[in-house]
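ugh ok fine here u go
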Amino acid sequence: MSLQDLIAPVSNKLTPTERRIAGVVLEDPTLLAFGTVSDLASRAETSRPSIVRFATKLGFDGYTDLQNSIRDQLTSQLASPSHRIRQQDGSAGPIRRAIDGAVHTTFEALGEDRLRALAEPIANARNVWILSGETSMAGAHALHSGLSMARPGVLLVAEHSTGRDLSSAAAEDVAVVFDFSRYRRNSIMAARALLEAGVQIVAITDGPLSPLASLTQTWCELRIPPVGPFDSSVPAVLTAELLVAQVVNILGDSARERIDRLEALWQATGVFLEYSPRPSREH
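structure:
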């Protein structure tokens, strides 16, 4: 049963405080699904006992019972491609609006101060390790491609070789970890292991309740819209491109000189096809 269906039958019995709680959880079901009693009480500006009474009024034994029910629904439905493909018609209008909104919120989330706070550890690290879940992999590839042309020591870690690749990570390094719900066990566990090894974590994720957000103060929240059955890669790629530009700006001459050397090597080895469009023939 959906959250709306749980609340509707008892709506006329809810106190003003309980109605405020209901409004909060309807606006953001993930807060109920993955937050604590204290998180929800703070957002609704009420007390922990009021949250528990709200759960009881909905027919549950307590907050944990209600939370488990909603969490199961969100996990199995909202994030499931098999569910999404049956619920969406695939028309371009809603997808375009969703992506437009996500791009706008990405620029808002990455204001000048936040972007610099994310980029400075990346610019100054000995090595940069990039890890990602499946749905955010396009952002990880974009970051690896751009950063590796601007500075040395940038490594994209594949899931099958995580242990081997990260065995040389040290306290002078930074790990940039992309992951959004549904979170991948490998990226989260690797981030925790790196943190224990003294590696600073820069997290690109989707909210304060993400398991990555608890590992570092250097993180940003992106809005990830669905596109058909899958999550959009646009916010992650946009973030990666903004980070590369900011890192290049911080590194200054060293980045520019490295890019110049790379360009010279490309020219010397004939990387690019020398091609000019055939001139149009006169008839």
